[in-house]
Write a structure and sequence with these properties.
Two copies of one chain form a homodimer. With 577 residues, chain A is of the alpha+beta class. Helices cover 57% and strands 10% of the residues of chain A. In chain A, helix 1 packs across helix 10, helix 3 runs antiparallel to helix 5 and helix 10 crosses helix 18.
């Protein structure tokens, strides 16, 4: 059984995201896209899904500076590489396949539903490689990027340090210039996913460090390439200090790394000194969208497992049934089980729509549309955070559908729940995304990003003519009013103005997901008009109605809290706890 | 470090629950109660808390029909028994200490915060023993109850079966009468907590089974005592078929048990035939309140861990701070961290207040107050469910406060989150509690239970004169209006009427927690008037304000959905998923 709904993925890709508008004029057509997704499906089915339980139960082991992974991981990443999925998103100039981001993300979704932990290694490599692709010299691209595209080298991003988790301003890793133009790196990095393994010939660490004498804080951060093994074959002085033992996501090693403990760690500067954080933000933004996609994939996998169980499991009777000797009915006959299933569907499907929409914006931007980037910028914190919060909630519901069975490790839903709990934390916590959205993204370019967002929503409302349009329009008006009010307060008093940034993030997210449901429902209406209605399409309309009735309606109360900018948490003196 | 806040527990017990009104006229005084809590604290600190991590990492192992537990469990349960905590809640007529339920529950809370898994063995034994105390013959009490009170025998409750989880109507375990008046038991039971272990000389299973020829459905269920070892020393035919491998709560064995596989399982009827479910409901109701207390304890333990971490951990700066060379501030200086902490406090403290309030009602009922039982009946589904849902949410927040560290098994917060996820499932799922509340409890005795609830809240509003009273009064009015509307629909059409029972449960729960916050805040005001204000008391007032602003305010939107009795989930055809 697949961990995702193929019919839904194709509908989302072709009918909602309209990938046809992206591939038009390229050498890709619908059949080619289907072929790529078939290949992804086959590899995911053969190498990813069957081992998800095993790699959860047998987490990597620290052995004398090495991380020992279960044997099943290597064949899975090899199949991924051999299938062209690592090369897919890179430019053909560097050996990549130049696949549109939209198609790449759809394929990523397939792998992530099957086994998010193994998928992690590729995700980091793609992010690290793209950094070099964007900011490295030609020589660096030849030496590091090309082997990454080929899958011989993997990559990481090394930002956090033990004393500086979310606060990059406080990193202390040092990069001292050497006479030959290279740098001597020393410091300790923490929470490094895929930081050590034997899956590739080399690991290319993209490391944030400070060059002595530079400006304090984030303005003094530079970016370095620090390979695990130098290209002359010598081991660089990067050592695995330990593995973190996580609640979930266990198949991806998460490492404490020591750089230059013996004074012999050599790195290369990427781009100009002191611009490292700016460069890294490209990777972080991509990573944030990937995190959202991963959270969505986990929500989807849980939903599919819960749905399959609910359809097959007989249990109890209707509240109306008086005859205890009648047969038990399927779980789906119970109203509250349908609610739990619908709540999952209502969360995971618009989350996928948003992830694909973001990918479309990336493709449009690559094609020269700068407005697409503005909209993507403002959507990024939402695309990262909303699925991390609400697809996790979906995973909670999936467990509930299975009841006691769902609480055991015999079924995958408890693993999805554990895996997904990481997503509101890494690549910028939920709280940090809120501050990014309210403190930066809605203010940037004199509010151009936010204007682009509400403009795009209103355009879709007008174009769709869908019955849910007016309710969404009301929510958008409310969002605009709240944003105007809070933005003024952020400027006047950043601390109090940002005190409810997280709630603002959830609020914006719900409006955006209402928008995604409108897009899905409008596409379903269109398809029904063309091909006739179907159970599949009716389900879209009903789930959209459910989302509006049960979730979008929450924005009403949130708007009141935000308009009042309630300070009850802000005013809590730490001493009073 | 304790996993609970002792000052808060004492405040809740003496100032909010007013245990003085319970112990008045008994041989207990304040000093004696403090002594009992000190003993609990000492045992929990020495034997429970230090091993919580270990028993999570090393779950019980199935070995040839036996369940092998880590060595640290036995000394912990022995210390509990030796400290008198197993005998505490039983009647002195049967060797018990006759401790008031309120004091017993306060002590339980201490153990549960330290190590909920080990606590499970005692909880089941107390529940099983009380069943015999209430419905067994004198002879059964002598033979089974007395050794349980002494801690020589432990107990279980055996309800679910593989084909019948929540639907007890469909159990098939058979009890065939033997000539000597005993019964031959045969069948398979599932999800039996503490179903096998070597912690006691014997295990007394309280088993639901059907006597052939009885009425179908729940009306044909009888209750049996089925010991693991017969009192003549022979092994009864009860075998451990397997252990369930759970996400959390790992230290408590959870078993599949086979009864009478070899035709030699002997049980004794408790009370009259076919009344087993009625008897069992006593135990289930107690168990439900205990589940709520356990969920509260886990929420509390997470909150304490998060609070301690946040106070000590320096990270980042205020949004106002421009100088990156200034020192990092403590996590508690960040508005969103204070929100995450306050959200936990706002959930776990009223949950404890409700658990203790329920215990007070038990004590009042024992003292002859029948109205107390009516109120307890209607509160039971709330006391079970609200903490299971919202203290789990608190555990999610605790992880978030710690960030990446919270996601590792080096800190206890991820374990609390995994442990607590069981609580919305066992002893009646969240959905079943909703149907119990709306379909049974608010309708019973012509609405007397519900009337008692709103009456009690209004009485406290009037008596307290607290500034939050009017907002709570509005919420209570709303609850009454919603209840009237839904109750009529339940009678007219049970299926559609109950379709939103779970939301109704959460709604009622939030109003009840608003009430608990009012009681806490009023007690804090009183204390401040007597002893002067303090940080501790200010924290109560602020958390109450936060709960009203952020949580009680949610009842507004929920009431609208419930008044409309939104059917968007009910109307989802299973084929449309």
């Amino acid at each position: 059984m697949r961990a995702y709904d193929r019919e839904d993925l194709l509908f989302q890709l072709f009918d909602v995201a309209r990938v046809d508008t992206i591939i038009e004029g390229t050498d890709l057509d619908r059949e080619a896209v289907l072929g790529i997704l078939d290949t992804a499906d086959q590899i995911a089915t053969d190498y990813y899904l069957p081992h998800a339980h095993e790699i959860d139960e047998h987490e990597p082991v620290f052995d004398n500076g090495r991380a020992i992974l279960p044997d099943v991981v290597k064949p899975a990443v090899d199949a991924f590489v051999d299938g062209g999925f690592l090369a897919a998103p890179f430019s053909p100039d560097h050996g990549g396949l130049g696949l549109p981001e939209t198609v790449h993300q759809a394929a990523s979704f397939v792998f992530s539903t099957a086994n998010i932990s193994i998928k992690g290694y590729a995700m980091l490599t793609i992010g690290a490689g793209r950094l070099i692709q964007s900011f490295g010299t030609d020589d660096q691209k030849t030496r590091y990027l090309h082997p990454m595209v080929e899958g011989r080298f993997f990559g990481t991003m090394c930002l956090s340090e033990p004393q500086a988790g979310s606060s990059l301003s406080d990193i202390t890793t040092k990069a001292e210039p050497m006479e030959d133009g290279r740098y001597r790196i020393s410091g300790r990095k923490m929470w490094i996913s895929a930081g050590e393994h034997d899956l590739s010939d080399n690991i290319v660490h993209m490391v944030l460090a400070k060059i002595p004498g530079g400006p304090p804080g984030v303005k003094g951060i530079s970016l370095f390439i620090v390979p695990k093994i130098r290209l002359d074959g010598a081991r660089n002085d990067v050592t695995l200090a330990g593995l973190n033992h996580k609640m979930g996501y266990r198949g991806t090693t998460n490492c404490a790394l020591n750089f230059g403990e013996n004074g012999d760690c050599i790195g290369e500067l990427v781009g100009e000194p002191h611009k490292g954080l700016r460069y890294m933000f490209q990777m972080m933004n991509e990573a944030r969208i990937s995190v959202g996609m991963g959270a969505t994939a986990l929500g989807q996998a849980g939903y599919q497992a819960a749905l399959a169980y609910a359809k097959e499991r007989p249990q109890g009777r209707s509240p109306k049934a008086k005859d205890p000797t009648s047969s038990q009915v399927s779980l789906t006959e119970h109203a509250d089980i349908r609610r739990l299933l619908l709540a999952q569907k209502a969360a995971v499907e618009p989350a996928l729509a948003l992830a694909l929409f973001c990918a479309v914006l990336v493709d449009r931007h690559r094609a020269g549309d700068t407005d697409a980037l503005t909209l993507l910028d403002v959507l990024t914190p939402v695309a990262k955070s909303w699925p991390s919060e609400f697809c996790l909630e979906a995973n909670k519901h999936a467990i509930q559908v299975l009841g006691g069975a769902g609480y055991t490790r015999d079924y995958p839903v408890e693993r999805h729940y554990r895996d997904n709990r990481l997503n509101p934390i890494h690549e910028g916590t939920h709280g940090i995304q809120g501050m990014d959205l309210l403190g930066r993204k809605v203010l940037m370019q004199n509010g151009a990003g936010f204007a682009a967002l509400v403009g795009a929503i209103r355009q879709d409302i007008a174009a769709s003519g869908h019955a849910l349009g007016p309710d969404l329009a009301t929510a958008v008006d409310r969002l605009e009013e709240v944003t105007r009010s809070l933005a003024a307060q952020v400027i006047a008093d950043p601390e109090r103005g940002l005190a409810n940034a997280t709630l603002y993030l959830d609020f914006t997210g719900h409006v955006v997901m209402g928008w995604m449901w409108l897009r899905i429902a409008a596409a379903a209406s269109l398809r029904a008009g063309q091909d006739g209605d179907s159970d599949f399409l009716k389900g879209k309309q009903q789930a959209a109605r459910y989302f509006f009735a049960r979730e979008l309606s929450r924005t009403d109360g949130w708007a009141r809290t935000l308009m009042a900018n309630d300070q009850s948490a802000f005013d809590m003196d730490p001493a009073w706890f």
